[in-house]
Input
Amino acid sequence: MADLTSTFIGIQSPNPFWLASAPPTDKAYNVVRAFEAGWGGVVWKTLGEDGPPLVNVNGPRYGAWHSGDRRLMGFNNIELITDRPLDLNIREITQVKKDWPDRAMIVSLMVPCTEDAWKDVLHKIEDTGADGIELNFGCPHGMSERGMGAAVGQVPEYVEMVTRWCKEYSAMPVIVKLTPNITDIRLSARAACNGGADAVSMINTINSIISVDLDTFSINPSTGGKGTHGGYCGPAVKPIALNMVAEVARDEQTRGLPISGIGGITTWRDAVDFIALGAGNVQVCTAAMTYGFKVIDDMIAGLSDFMDDKGITSIDEIVGKAVGNVTDWQYLDLNTIVKAEIDQDSCIQCGRCHVVCEDTSHQAITQEKDGLRHFEVIDEECVGCNLCVSVCPVENCISLRELSAGETDARTGETVSDQYANWTTHTNNPARTNQ
Amino acid sequence: MSGVQAQAAASAPDIKTARLQTGEYLHNFSEMHPPLGETAVLVEADRCHFCYDAPCTEACPTGIDVAGFIRMIKSGNHYGAARLILQENIIGGSCARVCPTETLCEEACVRNDQDHRPVRIALLQRHAVDVAMSTGKQFFSRKTDTGKRVAIVGAGPASLSCAHGLAREGHRVTIFEAREKSGGLNEYGLAAYKMLDNFASREIDYITAIGGIEFRYGQELGDDFDLTSLQEGYDAVFLGMGLGGVNSLGLPNEAADGVMSAVDYIERLRQCADFAELPVGRQVVVIGGGMTAIDIATQIKLLGADEVTLAYRRGPEAMVASEEEREFTQIKGVKILYNATPVNIHTIDGHIKEVEFECKDKTFTLPADMLFKAIGQTFSAKIDSSIALEKGRIRVDEERKTSVAGVWAGGDCVCEGEDLTVAAAQDGKLAARSINECLLKSSTGD
Output
């Protein structure tokens, strides 16, 4: 079995799967259950400043978008940071860390944007024995209205400033959790980096409204007929999160900055995606909130078996392995030419490839041959767009074949070149660089 | 008891009522394909790929937009789904229950090639129509009365489909039915476990709520009225009286006690107030290979017969009853004998005692207290000899016109009929369109 031990910014955990700061890590009872189930670490649900605990709504906190068979695709919430007294949380964190010394214990923090407030809270958690802190600059609802959470994360200068305070007043490693509710994630990551962050974690939840109740026209979920935007997460947000992780991983100014990957991780495969795109470890929430803590079993076994299968002995070997393969559109090779191919033996004749190509794309798939229902790619029309592959209900029935150099592209009549050529040098590009 | 006495006892006819307890009848005659619950409906609907030019629609004799209605179920628009179904087939509720979908839409489903399990189209169709019927939601209304009158003979599926189509166009329809109830085979035929809770009659109420459809019961063509009187009194005539006769085996002693028509017995079963009233033999033989044979064999077994053997003169590949139907009857305990041709009926005191079969040069006998004939029905209506027949049934063209002007026909009584409820529905629908065109032409003087 592969060694899943993780060392992330110096913090050890038996595996790279941490529970993200969220309801599953709100108190000792849940966290102990998580550790018993095998989770490598937790980011304790965000603590606020000392004083009367804040209050949550008493109506629904969560909303969900389901697939037809009721699988949870997307999830949102309007829960705030912890609504339990600060000293209770601190006592529990201390005890749990003492009882589970091999697990990573990170404390998420969010206090008003003043130096004193941060200095004060950092001081209070210094003695818990926690391995590090995570700055919650991402929470998009409730707290942001009070000038915290995403309200800080959306202003790079604030991100840098608060990060700097934390590094100044605490010896603990600092992870800055980034909000995706911005136009360019790199600006926030650079700010965290400039402030001295040991790592960034991403992504926090995305502003969202689940749906409208078509009988009452209130929004779902509704609190007394009204609703507010909640933080969106779950499988639906994973592609957005992956892109943001990759953007930070390949940005010149943040390259090498450790990343804790978050966003819809449900299986070990999702985790490998994040790690390959630059994450040093991953954080999970929605999968646990959908199925319970036992999902960790598949994550551990799957990652371990995958590593054994690929001859990979440590997670570090996977970190960033795919980053070099992410590039800008302008550098994609225009001489790579592909054609869709339909495997007639596995085709079930649903005709979806034909109709989507016919209605919405390039009219490159037949619907009949010799008077019979038959779906076949017309190479003369096929641009290799991958739409048919995407909509085909049978996996691997339609695939893209890359033409070899020397072959003729039936669509253009041109011979396929073995030379790499991208848009920057293309003759149709008025701004081409080799004029 | 000596061996001789035992044999004598075994061969005495053993037919009696109330072989089972009340609870056993309820259990045995529970629904063959129970409806899906709300969640199961959504999961099943989600399996539909929404095929282009969907093969299931092609396979439906009435051309229901199956993928279309399933997509509407998926989006929570059950009324929309029901409207899409009923606009092509007004008896879509019946068809969802009785269609041999394994040889129609569900056979064509591309899911068969993907995971060997078609989308359960019939149950989805049933769900949508049941939602509409249970709330009394109507999708169609009568156009302004045209003053045209159409006579329909028989009140089965073909006639009801035709009547509804004509009523929508504003014509007035009078249905002449020989029996005391409408519904035809839906009411008097078919296995009880396919049509529960008086569905046939509830469906007729739902269909006729459109208005403009009148029933005259106890009116048999040839006895109480004739075709000429209809032609004189109405602007058009549709014949949908089904098949009245039963094929005979052509065997000696066919008139013996205990030898009966499956169709007659099923009719009695469907109409009885209590299954315990029905006489049931201990050892029963059914001769035939179609749906009626399956239906009688299964039901007599469920009524408490000890041994039921369905004997068919050819192999399984030639049998009209589908593989699923055959499996169903076998699960219920019926034994199917293939390649067994009945050659004689032996009797004792005028009552059937055993049936002699030939099977590939060998002969054998099966003891039987009851024997059901289910080898097909024949056209037996007393109609005007000027109406051309073909293969013993009424000849019709694509529009369901007979050889006589102003007379249309459909359902089991026409020669091209597939003897399916859904085919009858299509006949009625096409005939109604054709009749409407003719009536409109005649009223505009074209």
